[in-house]
Each structure stands twice: as structure tokens, then as C-alpha cells.
Specification:
The chain is α/β, with parallel strands linked by helices. The structure holds iron/sulfur cluster (SF4). The site of iron/sulfur cluster (SF4) has 14 residues, from α6 and α12.
């Protein structure tokens, strides 16, 4: 359809509002309460317009277009009313613009200039009960400046779903407040900063940027978040060589103007005084400062010695899920072309190795099949083994939106997570009983004819075998194994099977088991059975952990593949890389992380090169890992902070951090996005790429200059699935692989060819209980995971101001019933003991934990949870069983209990 605005004919879509069409076409209509992320409110009355043959002056943000509509945006009547509205707002607003943190970034200020209106010449009347609130580490609330547009209330409700704010009182006393005027810390607020971002004036500002300057003083650098695999787009605000704030990138196809607390506020770790700033070499038992020349010469000499004495089999290298693709690629190239080993791995081994192995067998590729944005349009979502509101908060917003618009949400998780509260069907299954649940759902789906017969029988191999296996899992039997009611299993099966399309999301609740690969294959079976692969708004969606764990795997940071999952045991692949790198790629598949650790303990691996990894916190049975690492002849550690591992390292190399490094990350939906250098690194820290290339040169091989763009171009040349991705093309938005040619738009969802050219494979699997179950000596089951405020080892979040104020310590979460039967109090310090070690932590009573199951994260070096966990391995992917081990809890003599936060 067409409408005319101010004499210009414009095309419009049904459902558009007049304001949307105007903004899309660069036509300015003043507004204050409008935010494209929100339902229009029409409350500020500034976007009023005159429309021919329409009575009154409608708010253009709420006015739907109709064909032939003629709109005038700046008539005399309209302008007179706008002027009055602005005057009224100014009369109710403190006139301290020069001292306001929003100066230069205030919509009311802009409008006052636009309409030439001064503050009224009389004293400002103070609003009662609206004094500045400064009750949390991140957000300053000064409601004297509030214009009551309610954008903060609406974004907290409509986008974040926290509903922490509302308008209270009436008339002059009306103000924004939490329930009962509680502090934000005592409200449902998750400190995501959406309210600050949407506030059009200075009523809400970021506390950490206060005093650094006005909006126009900052340099804005577009980059990608450093924390999780969602890969939200953001601008770093830089002043005087410091990152002083972060703002969301509203045009990011991934995050669309959203960030979580980590992205928004855990950005200043590069400036922390604990940063490594100079190379360190261990002499006489102590790490001592050294020049780069000394440190690199030392490493090269020792590596050459070990190579000469024991050959490449004596080396292992672990690259990093939080370093750039370019750094990971050069690391992989170094290990293969300079050292001559395929024993290279990354921390995906401990999180999504079963995804890579399991989905490669069933579907043909081990990555998230669909895109984050598609989740919002999925009619049904099964979230199994994923606490995504804490681990992938911005992605979880898409799931929330889907539920808001009527999607069914089935949540299967032993813990009653926040997501469970949103669920249409919540299945609190026992830890480690995912396969029986999935088999039970498939049993019902087949029995009731809810499967996609044509897809399951014609486009997949092994349907009869699957049918035979799931026939052994009637809901009654599954109920016994899982602890779920049979009706719940049937309801979930029907909900999933009847949905026109359904997406499955999972994270480490599925993969971190001794049967992790089987769990993943079982998920793929359910998706294939219902024809939910190779279609939009559906799919199998493993949510990847760290910011570049997808990229670390894509770059060949695994012992069996090179870039883009080209197989090491394929002679043609080896020949291609051998020619490009000027070396012979060894034909033997290398050792997995967990295998390599054992070889270190046996003295067969003598040198470990670590880039951005802290295995003493992340490895299962961490005491044993420490024991193995102690045996190394050469431990080279390259990182931003010393962490736990520096205590054992022979050489520590200071690397530049996120914010100081150019390159790319690949997010969980396979999107390659830019990260950019915005600040100068501290001291002598150097980019990982430079360090690797320098070391290679001293080992006698030139593997490149380390320049980020040049390195990416080399990756693209050697990787067919990424050949079409270049820095020029991902300047603003990134591209999803496969992207094979310069005009390929990238791939939104994988496996469309399963409907035409290729077949998938059912891999039926049976239930296997966790390797270690509670008994009389260790009567509780410990399951582990992540928390909202920290990420991974906490290397970045612990070094960001304010985060530890909100989440200062590890907690063991337990059901109050367990606490009472153990005779302990909420908030009391307790000892958690397993067969492998013990940790002292504070008890936190919560009904999120089922009776008999306790929960801990692994974010705190002071209480390293992984000394407790069980090293039982998934034989197919080599991942340990982090998610289940038997423990007991003992009282310890400590000062008084303090309630856990
Ligand atoms: Fe960063 Fe992940 Fe939060 Fe996005 S969801 S802001 S990527 S931590």
C-alpha cells in the first residue's frame, strides 16, 4: 500500500504505524515515549500528526496506516500542541542540564532546542519521594528527572519479563518504583540495563560511566560481547583510553538492542590492575619478569629440545573459546605445522563435544541448526537441560517473546529454573534421565500417529530401529525412571508432536554426561521423527557456551578436524593444508583434552601450550588435573590474568584482551562477527596472533604476520563453508556459515537439503544412569552449572567492577527439606565432600533444587567445585560427567550464618 507523508508518497506494509513508516524513510516526527522494541503507548502526545479525513490529532506511533492515507507532520496546530507539551515537561524537570550525565544524549533537551523553548523562569518544584536512588552497583535512578514516559516500566515487562518497575501514586506524586519501594537488589530486577538504555532523559544512567563525560565526548566502537555464545552486538564507549560504558547495538540481528548484565556492565576487566603486563619466566622456582625476547627464546629453545628428545607426541595445545577465530586458527596452525601434532583441543571438550559428535552422525553437522531470531516464531519450544535465562539471557528473551505470543514452551530440567515458571508444561525429571524422557515422548508420538511419517521414513534411515527402541519406553516405565507423572510425559509429547513446527534448545544439562553424545542423538531423533529439521522456526539448537566456542571448533581447535570440520584423516584435506602451510599434516587423529591430561600424568606429554584456558578450574576432578599438570616439563600459559594455572606455569605470556584485539568471534548461530580493538593494551601485552607467529618464527617457521584481516583471508581461502565471508562483508552485521561465495547471503537454517537430496540417520539409544549415584556415604546428588552474574571461570566477571558485589561467592543450593534433615541453616558455611575432594561454601536454601539434589557453579577459584566432580567419560566425545556426582554435606565450625544472596 501507499501513504503520503508531508507530500512524499511512500510504500507501507499492513500493520505498520504512521510513525514506523516515517522513521523508516527518514522523516522526523518528535517523540519521547516511543521505542521500536515496545508496544506503542501514545502517551507523550509528541508524535501527534494531522491526517486528512481523520478527526483529531492521533498519535502517529499508535495510528495504523491505510492505503491512500495523507499525513502532515508539522502543521501549525500540531506544532502548537507539541510546544505546550514540551513546556509542561520542562516545567516539571530540574534545570541542571549542564551537570546531568545525559547532557547531549537527552531527548527532552534536543526537543527544547528544536522548539526553542527555555526552562520556565521559576523554581522547580521537587517531586515527593523521588530522590536519587543509589542502591545497586550499576544504575543511578534520579526520578526528579523522570518524565513518566514509562519506557523503563514497559521494557522491563515486555522485553526483559522481569516486571521490576511500575508507576505508583497519582498526579504530581506519580513516580516509578519497585514493589514496596524496595531497592533494585531486592526486587526482581536482573540489572540488564534495558531501562537505562530506553530512558530518553537522565532519570536512569549507568553508574560506572558517571563523571567520564557527555555523550558526544565518547568514541563509539562497534564490537561483540566477550562473555557468552549469544554474541550480542554492542558499542564500547571510550574516553581517555578507557572503556567507560557499553551501549547495545540496536541494529544487531542477534540482540536487537538487548544486553544482559554481563554484556552491559562486565566490560571493564581489561583495565583491572591484576592484568598480566609483562612476560614471566620461572627461575629458581619463582615467576620473574622477562623481556619478550627472553621469554620467547626460552619457550622456543625448550620446545625444540623436547621435540628433539621426544617428538611431536610429547606436545599438547589447548586453544581458547574466548580468543578470536584468527588467534585460534594460528594456534592450530602452530601446533600442526610447527610442532607436528594434532593433539589440539579447546574447552568445547568440556561442554559441547557431544554436540559436535552426536549431530555430525545424525544430521551431518554439529552446530545449531537454526537462528536465534527464529526462536521467537517457533510455535513450540522444548528447552531441555538448559537454564538459558541465566546462561544465554538475551537468547532467552526470544523464547519469552514466543511465549508472550502464544508459543507452547516445554521445559525439562531437574531444577525449577526461571524458565520453568514460563513453561506450558514443566517436567522436573531426575538428573541423567533425559533419554528415557525423550524416548517416552517419541513412544507417544509414534503411538498416536503424531510423527512426520514421510520425513521419518523417506528422508531418514533407521526408522524401524528407532521404533523398536522407543517401544520399550511407555510413559508408565518412563515415569518410574524419571520421577515424572506419566500424564506429564504424554502432555509434553502431544504438545511437541501436534505443533506445526517445534524447536529444541539444549545446553550442558544434556551434554555433560557420560552418555552426552547419546543424549544429543536422542534429541536429534525427536526432531527428525517430527520433521523439525531443515525448516525455519524449528531445529536442534545447542546453545554454545563461551563467546567464541563455536569459532574455536570451527577453526580446527579439535584433534580430528581442520577448519570448517575438514577431517584430518582425509588425505585430500591433509594435502590441501600441507601445501598451504608448507608442512606435512600428521595423519593420526590427536588426543582429546581428557586423554591428554592422563598422558601428562604418565609423563608421555611433556609440554602443554595453553592459550586462554584455566584447566585447574574447568577440568573435572581438578585435584587430579593439577597432579597431572605438575608433571609437565614445560607449561606455557598465554592469558590476560594469572588465574590458577600460573602457579604451575614455567612461562607466562601476557596477551591482549577483548577490547584490545581485532578479529572475529562466531556465535552460537554460526554467525561470524567482528570484535574490534578500542583501547591500548596495558604494559607489554601483545595480541595472541603476534605471540604465536613470533614463537613460530623462533622455532624456524613463518606462519604469517598475525594481522587479523590477513589471517581471516587465509582462513576463508582454506575453508569452503566460510569462503564467502570477508571483513568487508561483516563490517556491520556478520554472516552465518555456510557462506561459500562473495554473494552468498549466508545460511539462516541448516539441512534444508534433507527434504530433497540427502538422508539423516536415526541413532536410537537406551537409558544409561549417571556413573555415580547417591548412596549411604554420599547421599546427595550434585549437579553443576552457571549463574547469571558470572561466566565460566569468572576471569572476566570477577575483574569487572560491581559484579562481585551482586554475586560475591559460591553457594551450594539445596532444598530446605534437605537442609533441615542435615541440621543446617540457610546461609551457614558447609563442607561439600565427594569421593575426590571437598569444598567449603555457603548453603543457600531454595525450592529450585529438588529434594536430594544440590547445585553449584564453577565460577569461584576460592571454592573450586570441580574438585568434586566425576571424571567418568562419555566414550564417544570424551566429555566428563560434570552434571552428576554423589556428595555429602557436613557442618563446619564457622561464625554465624549469613543469609545467602
Ligand atoms: Fe553478552 Fe551473552 Fe549477555 Fe549477550 S547474552 S550480553 S552475549 S553475556
Amino acid at each position: 500500500m501507499e501513504i503520503t507523508i508531508d507530500g512524499v508518497r511512500l510504500s507501507a506494509q499492513p500493520g505498520d504505524t504512521v510513525l514506523q513508516v516515517a522513521l523508516r524513510n527518514g522523516i522526523h516526527i518528535p517523540n519521547l515515549c516511543y521505542d521500536q522494541r515496545l508496544e506503542p503507548a501514545g502517551s507523550c502526545r509528541l508524535c501527534i500528526v494531522e491526517i486528512e479525513r481523520v478527526r483529531g490529532l492521533p498519535a502517529s506511533c499508535c495510528m495504523p496506516v491505510s492505503d491512500g492515507m495523507v499525513v502532515h507532520t508539522h502543521t501549525e496546530r500540531v506544532e502548537a500542541i507539541r510546544r505546550t507539551v514540551i513546556k509542561l515537561l520542562l516545567s516539571d524537570h530540574p534545570n541542571d542540564c549542564l551537570r546531568c550525565e545525559a547532557n547531549g544524549d537527552c531527548r527532552l533537551q534536543e526537543l527544547a532546542y528544536e522548539y526553542g523553548i527555555d526552562f520556565p523562569d521559576r523554581p522547580y518544584a521537587k517531586h515527593p519521594n523521588a530522590d536519587q536512588e543509589d542502591d545497586n552497583p550499576f544504575i543511578v535512578r534520579d526520578y526528579q528527572k523522570c518524565i513518566l514516559c514509562a519506557r523503563c516500566v514497559r521494557i522491563c515487562d515486555e522485553v526483559q519479563g522481569a516486571s521490576a518497575l511500575s508507576i505508583v501514586a497519582r498526579g504530581f506524586e506519580a513516580r516509578i518504583a519497585t514493589f514496596g519501594d524496595a531497592s533494585l537488589m531486592d526486587s526482581p530486577c536482573v540489572l540488564c540495563g534495558h531501562c537505562v538504555d530506553t530512558c530518553p532523559v537522565g532519570a536512569l544512567v549507568d553508574k560506572k560511566r558517571v563523571g567520564y563525560g557527555r555523550a558526544h565526548d565518547f568514541r563509539r566502537v562497534l564490537t561483540t560481547c566477550s562473555h557468552c555464545g549469544v554474541g550480542c552486538g554492542m558499542f564500547l564507549l571510550v574516553r581517555h583510553g578507557r572503556i567507560v560504558a557499553v551501549e547495545p547495538h540496536h541494529a544487531s540481528p542477534v540482540s536487537r538492542g538487548s544486553l544482559c548484565v554481563k554484556g552491559r556492565y562486565a566490560y571493564d576487566f581489561p583495565h583491572h590492575p591484576d592484568r598480566l603486563t609483562t612476560p614471566l619466566v620461572r627461575r629458581n622456582g619463582e615467576l620473574e619478569p622477562a623481556t619478550w625476547d627472553e621469554a620467547l627464546e626460552y619457550v622456543a629453545t625448550r620446545m625444540k629440545q623436547i621435540l628433539a628428545e621426544s617428538g611431536p607426541g610429547a606436545f599438547a595445545g589447548w586453544c581458547s573459546s574466548c580468543c578470536t577465530n584468527e588467534a585460534n586458527y594460528l594456534f592450530v596452525k602452530f601446533m600442526r605445522a610447527v610442532i607436528g601434532t594434532n593433539t589440539v583441543d579447546n574447552c568445547a571438550r568440556n561442554c559441547h563435544a557431544p554436540t559436535v559428535a552426536g549431530l555430525a552422525t545424525t544430521l551431518g553437522a554439529g552446530a545449531m541448526t537454526n537462528s536465534i531470531a527464529e526462536l521467537q516464531n517457533a510455535p513450540c519450544i522444548l528447552a531441555i537441560g538448559t537454564n538459558m535465562t541465566e546462561t544465554h539471557p538475551v537468547l532467552a528473551l526470544r523464547v519469552r517473546q514466543a511465549v508472550r505470543t502464544g508459543a507452547k514452551l516445554i521445559v525439562a530440567d531437574p531444577r525449577r529454573t526461571e524458565l520453568a515458571d514460563l513453561a506450558t508444561t514443566y517436567l522436573p525429571l531426575r538428573v541423567g534421565t533425559d533419554i528415557p524422557l525423550l524416548n517416552g515422548m517419541m513412544h507417544v508420538i509414534i503411538k498416536e500417529g503424531l510423527y512426520h511419517e514421510q520425513f521419518a521414513t523417506e528422508r531418514c534411515e533407521g526408522f524401524e530401529e528407532l521404533k523398536a527402541v522407543v517401544a520399550e519406553y511407555p510413559p508408565e516405565r518412563v515415569a518410574e525412571i524419571t520421577g515424572l507423572p506419566a500424564e506429564g510425559i504424554i502432555t509434553a509429547a502431544r504438545g511437541f508432536g501436534e505443533a506445526e513446527r517445534a524447536a529444541i534448545c539444549y545446553t550442558m544439562g544434556i551434554t555433560q554426561h557420560a552418555c552426552g553424545t547419546d543424549n544429543v542423538q536422542s534429541i536429534a531423533n525427536l526432531a527428525l521423527l517430527t520433521g523439525n529439521v531443515g525448516r525455519e522456526n524449528a531445529g536442534v539448537n545447542p546453545l554454545r557456551g563461551q563467546s567464541n566456542v563455536q569459532g574455536a571448533c570451527d577453526m580446527g581447535g579439535l584433534p580430528n578436524v581442520l577448519t570448517g570440520y575438514q577431517k584430518v584423516d582425509d588425505p585430500a584435506v591433509r594435502a590441501k593444508f600441507g601445501e598451504a602451510w608448507g608442512c606435512d599434516i600428521p595423519p593420526e587423529i590427536g588426543l582429546q583434552h581428557t586423554e591428554a591430561i592422563l598422558k601428562m600424568g604418565e609423563g608421555q606429554i611433556r609440554c602443554l601450550y595453553l592459550m586462554g584456558e584455566q584447566p585447574l578450574l574447568t577440568d573435572v576432578d581438578a585435584n587430579h588435573a593439577r597432579h597431572c599438570l605438575e608433571k609437565l616439563d614445560l607449561l606455557v600459559m598465554q592469558d590476560n590474568f594469572p588465574g590458577e594455572t600460573s602457579a604451575l606455569a614455567h612461562v607466562v605470556l601476557p596477551a591482549t584482551s577483548w577490547g584490545e584485539t581485532d578479529g572475529t568471534f562466531t556465535n552460537t548461530e554460526r554467525r561470524v562477527q567482528r570484535v574490534r580493538r578500542a583501547i591500548v593494551p596495558p604494559g607489554e601485552a601483545q595480541p595472541d596472533t603476534w605471540i604465536i607467529c613470533e614463537l613460530a618464527r623462533r622455532m624456524g617457521k613463518d606462519i604469517g604476520s598475525g594481522d587479523a584481516k590477513e589471517t581471516w583471508d587465509e582462513i576463508a581461502r582454506l575453508t569452503p563453508t566460510m569462503a564467502g565471508i570477508s571483513y568487508e562483508r561483516i563490517e556491520h552485521a556478520g554472516l552465518q556459515w555456510p557462506c561459500r561465495t562473495p554473494d552468498d547471503p549466508g545460511t539462516k537454517f541448516l539441512h534444508a537439503d534433507l527434504w530433497t537430496d540427502r538422508k539423516a540417520k536415526f541413532m536410537p539409544v537406551h537409558h544409561q544412569p549417571p556413573a555415580e549415584l547417591p548412596d549411604d556415604e554420599y547421599p546427595l546428588l550434585l549437579t553443576t552449572g552457571r549463574r547469571l552474574f558470572h561466566y565460566h571461570t569468572g576471569m572476566r566477571t570477577h575483574h569487572s567492577q560491581g559484579i562481585d558485589d551482586v554475586a560475591p561467592e559460591e553457594l551450594v543450593e539445596m532444598n530446605p527439606q534437605d537442609g533441615e534433615s542435615l541440621g543446617i541453616e540457610d546461609g551457614e558455611m558447609v563442607k561439600v565432600v565427594s569421593r575426590r575432594g571437598e569444598v567449603t561454601v555457603r548453603a543457600a536454601f531454595t525450592r529450585r533444587s529438588p529434594v536430594g539434589t544440590v547445585f553449584m557453579s564453577f565460577h569461584f577459584r576460592e571454592s573450586p567445585t570441580n574438585v568434586l566432580t566425576n571424571p567418568a567419560l562419555d566414550p564417544k566425545a570424551g566429555i566428563p560427567e560434570f552434571k552428576a556426582c554423589a556428595v555429602r554435606i557436613e557442618k563446619v565450625e564457622t561464625p554465624e550464618a549469613v543469609p545467602a544472596t
